[in-house]
Structure formats: structure tokens, C-alpha cells
Design brief:
Organism: Streptomyces millisiae
Shape: globular
Strand content: 5-15%
Radius of gyration: 19 Å
Largest sheet: 5 strands, parallel
Oligomer: single chain
Structural class: alpha/beta
Order of helices and strands: EHEHEHEHEHH
Cofactor: Zn(2+)
Family: Belongs to the creatininase superfamily.
Distance between the termini: 26 Å
Keywords: Hydrolase, Metal-binding, Zinc
Protein name: Creatininase family protein
């Protein structure tokens, strides 16, 4: 059992990887994260959690860590300078090309570790596309689920800490405190949305949104003011542990029942 870094392998090394090796692709984003966090926030989290999970899982399965994707689907932040994004069509094509290229070798399993909520729906589509087109076993892991996709955020955010809020800021205070400007952190929670019973983050009716819809002027949706590096370490450690456990299952997963001897 081992962890390899795909970029450090030779072509003959790649040819000798086993079919059960899981190719792990960190998927982040480059986008505005309010005035207090770097535009690479999601990419930093994706890379850190993917690397930690791969290292932990390699004690019991084979993982090859692919170079991460930084530019992804961030059109909800396209209004802001600093957001570098791909269209849904372009990103799907990129993912298909990566899968097609990988399938030319022996590896038959690819897992995305996603740290940007705006990618989730598209990555779920890519799972099926890569399965049907290239015969790959495909998996989608999350560094953490945002509140609008079944995850949680602190009660002080009313379940609406979806971008640059308490938990995400805490994670960056742990991973890259030199890039966080807490003096610029401000509460930016669209509390008026609590007046809707059915429509909202994590409610029965989803809605399309961009981060300037909420008219806060900050580009963030949440409350980063109480963030701490201690909480960030706990959140990242938990994400790494979950990711490692999931990767161990990805390495042995088979949707059909295994025949009994």
C-alpha cells in the first residue's frame, strides 16, 4: 500500500500502477472570498485535505495524488475582481479529458475531493459521464458540505454560512493565517431569508443565487468574526479523517454484490 504523487512518476511508473489505485483529484476554486480571505481559499483547503487524507489512507490502499484543479465553476462570484472561472461546459470538458487520459493507463478509479460548493452539482454529473464514457469507477468527496447542500453552519449564521463565514475562516486561520485579515472580517448574514419557510439554504426549495444578490457589498455570506485557528484545526482534522476513511472504501468499492465462494 502506498501514496504516490502522479507528477513525480515516470511513464513506466504510471504503467505499473494497479487498477485499484485511487487517483485523487483535489478540486478548489479561485474566487472572491470577501475582504478578509484570499481568493485561493477553496484551493488551499482542497489541497490540504486531499493530501492529509491521502497520506492517512495510504496505510491500507494505493493512492496517487493528482495535481489539483484551481480554476473551476465560480460564476456566482463572476461579478468580483479576483474570480477566475470556467463555464460549466468547459469544466465538464476538462474533467472528461482528464478521465479519458487517465483511462489510457491502468488506473480505473478516480475520486474528486471538492472544497467549493459551486462545483458540487457539476461534479456529480461528471461522475456519470466518466463512468459511461471511459469505464472509470468515480467518486465525489467533500472537504465539507456547505449549508445549502445539507451541511451545517453555526446557529449564529442561521444556517447560512455558505461562503467565507465562521467555519471557512477558521480553516484558513489554521492552514494559512498569514493570508487572513481578521481586521476586515464583518458579519454578513442575509437574516431576512429566515422569513421564508420553503425557499432558502438547506430548505426544500433551492434557488439560484450569486454572491452579490444579498446586497451586502462584501461578497461573503456568513459571520467570520468569531473564527479561531483552534476550531479550524478541528475542522480540518475531521475532514482529513473522513476523507481517509472514504478513500479506503473507494479503493475496494464494488456496486454489484460480490459472489460468495
Amino acid at each position: 500500500m502506498a501514496l504516490t504523487r502522479f507528477t513525480e512518476l515516470t511513464a513506466p511508473d504510471v504503467a505499473e500502477l494497479s487498477a485499484d489505485t485511487v487517483a485523487l483529484l483535489p478540486v478548489g476554486a479561485i474566487e472572491q472570498h470577501g475582504p478578509h480571505l484570499p481568493v485561493a481559499t477553496d484551493y488551499i483547503v482542497a489541497e490540504a485535505v486531499a493530501e492529509g487524507a491521502a497520506l492517512a489512507a495510504a496505510d491500507s490502499c494505493d493512492i496517487t495524488l493528482l495535481p489539483g484543479l484551481a480554476y473551476t465553476k465560480s460564476d456566482e462570484h463572476a461579478w468580483s475582481p479576483g474570480t477566475l472561472w470556467l463555464s460549466a461546459r468547459t469544466l465538464l470538458a476538462v474533467l472528461d479529458d482528464i478521465g479519458r487520459s487517465l483511462a489510457a493507463g491502468p488506473v480505473r478509479r478516480i475520486a474528486f475531493l471538492n472544497a467549493h460548493g459551486g462545483n458540487s452539482a457539476l461534479l456529480a454529473v461528471a461522475l456519470r459521464e466518466l463512468r459511461t464514457r471511459h469505464g472509470l469507477a468515480t467518486f465525489l468527496l467533500h472537504a465539507s458540505l456547505p449549508a445549502d447542500q445539507g451541511g451545517t453552519s453555526p446557529a449564529t449564521e442561521h444556517g447560512m454560512g455558505v461562503h467565507g463565514g465562521h467555519n471557512e475562516t477558521s480553516a484558513l486561520l489554521h492552514l494559512r493565517p498569514d493570508l487572513v485579515h481578521m481586521d476586515l472580517a464583518r458579519r454578513s448574514v442575509p437574516e431576512h431569508l429566515t422569513g421564508y419557510e420553503y425557499i432558502g439554504f438547506g430548505k426544500p426549495v433551492a434557488f439560484g443565487w450569486t454572491s452579490d444578490d444579498f446586497a451586502t457589498g462584501t461578497g461573503l455570506v456568513g459571520d467570520p468574526t468569531g473564527a479561531t485557528p483552534e476550531l479550524g484545526r478541528k475542522l480540518v482534522d475531521a475532514a482529513v479523517a473522513r476523507g481517509a476513511a472514504a478513500l479506503r472504501e473507494c479503493a475496494r468499492f464494488c456496486p454489484a454484490p460480490r459472489p460468495t465462494p
